[in-house]
Automatic annotation (TrEMBL):
NADPH binds at residues 11-12, 32, 106, 140, 255, 279, 281. It is an enzyme of class 1 (oxidoreductase). This is Glycerol-3-phosphate dehydrogenase [NAD(P)+]. The keyword Methyltransferase does not apply. Catalyzes the reduction of the glycolytic intermediate dihydroxyacetone phosphate (DHAP) to sn-glycerol 3-phosphate (G3P), the key precursor for phospholipid synthesis. The active site is at 191 (proton acceptor). Gene3D superfamilies: N-(1-d-carboxylethyl)-l-norvaline Dehydrogenase, domain 2, NAD(P)-binding Rossmann-like Domain. The lineage of its organism: Bacteria, Bacillati, Bacillota, Bacilli, Bacillales. Residues 3-158 form the Glycerol-3-phosphate dehydrogenase NAD-dependent N-terminal domain. Residues 1-17 form the signal peptide.
Length: 343
């Protein structure tokens, strides 16, 4: 049994805390909200994020960060991308050098466009190679109900990936390891953009043909940027790539899909976020990916059109028409060029 701290108590953080508690670990789940902590400890629910699902007695919610981290042998960072640096900086004084540090956040930092492991490495004064990312096709609503789920943990050092694997794996939560930390992080972040597009397409009633094309071409965009950033292209054919892309683009559990469908109804971004009441990482990530595409000189037409919808007031219908009206290209030639150096 290990002592594990989970930061913070959103839907995914709470679901991962439930997995850890089921595995017999002593779990402290940190939240700034004292009412939420009282609810988790006394009612055994986290209604705002996970409805009336009963949470394990093995989860203790705390509001003091030092108390959450005291004696922890592993720390799971699940803060939103916009808050990751703040949380990591606050946690750093209480985390020893031998503590296993894992993050499960899918996004880039606003302004710097850093991956989450870059932020953690800077704030915890560690090498990125000692950090682990957990990602893959996984809705919190299903995980907390113990529905079969398979994810990947990635680290440049196999020992750390296997330590994370041992921490989480059980009969309903299967965990694979992967050495390609960059690829897993890029895939997890960019798929949220494509899910926004899928929700938008469904909201416009464009049908399954359009969504299938969007998912497939979206995977190409993920791979292009990942390749430019140093990822292994084979990662995008696995759980963190096509697996996570499918689940996020086809399920009403997906916040990004729901946000896209609301945008299709003509709602402004601020109103979409207000109605959602939760973080929608794809919106922030669209701006970051748009800038990264320019930085790395890669074509990301879906991302570009969604950027114009979100931040420049373009109509969703016109964005789809712009994608359909792009110049002719050769699919096999394009795919072969991108994948040939990895297979």
């Amino acid at each position: 049994m290990s002592k594990v701290a989970v930061l913070v108590a959103g839907s995914w953080g709470t679901a991962l805390a439930a997995v850890l508690a089921d595995n017999g670990h002593q779990v402290r789940l940190w939240t700034r909200n004292s009412e939420q902590a009282d609810e988790i400890n006394n009612q055994r629910t986290n209604v705002r994020f996970l409805g009336d699902v009963e949470l394990s007695q093995g989860i203790e919610a705390v509001t003091e960060l030092e108390a959450a981290l005291n004696g922890a042998q592993a720390v799971i960072f699940v803060a939103p991308s916009a808050a990751m640096r703040e949380v990591a900086r606050a946690a750093a004084p209480y985390i020893g050098r031998d503590v296993l540090c894992i993050h499960a956040t899918k996004g880039f930092e606003s302004g710097t466009y850093n991956r989450m492991t870059t932020i953690l490495a800077e704030e915890l004064d560690r090498s990125e190679s000692t950090l682990v990312v957990l990602s893959g096709p996984s809705h919190a609503e299903e995980v907390v109900r113990k529905q079969p789920t398979t994810v990947v943990v990635a680290s440049a050092e196999q020992y750390h990936a296997e330590s994370a694997q041992d921490l989480f794996i059980n009969s309903y939560f299967r965990v694979y390891t992967n050495p390609d930390l960059i690829g897993v992080e890029v895939a997890g972040a960019i798929k949220n953009i494509i899910a926004l597009g899928a929700g938008l397409s469904d909201g416009l009633s464009f049908g399954d043909n359009a969504k299938a094309a969007l998912i497939t071409r979206g995977l190409t965009e993920i791979a292009r940027l990942g390749d430019a950033m140093g990822a292994n292209m084979l990662t995008f054919a696995g759980l963190a790539g096509v697996g996570d892309l499918i689940v996020t683009c086809t399920s009403t559990h997906s916040r990004n899909w729901r946000a896209g469908s609301l945008l299709a109804k003509g709602l402004e971004v601020d109103e979409v976020l207000r109605q959602m009441g939760m973080v929608v990482e794809g919106i922030r990530t669209t701006r970051a990916a748009y800038e990264l595409a320019k930085l790395y000189d890669v074509q990301m037409p879906i991302t570009e059109q969604l950027y114009q919808v979100l931040f420049e007031g373009k109509s969703p219908k016109l964005a789809v028409e712009a994608l359909m009206g792009r110049g002719r290209t050769h699919e096999i030639e394009e795919v072969t060029k991108a994948w040939s150096k990895h297979v």
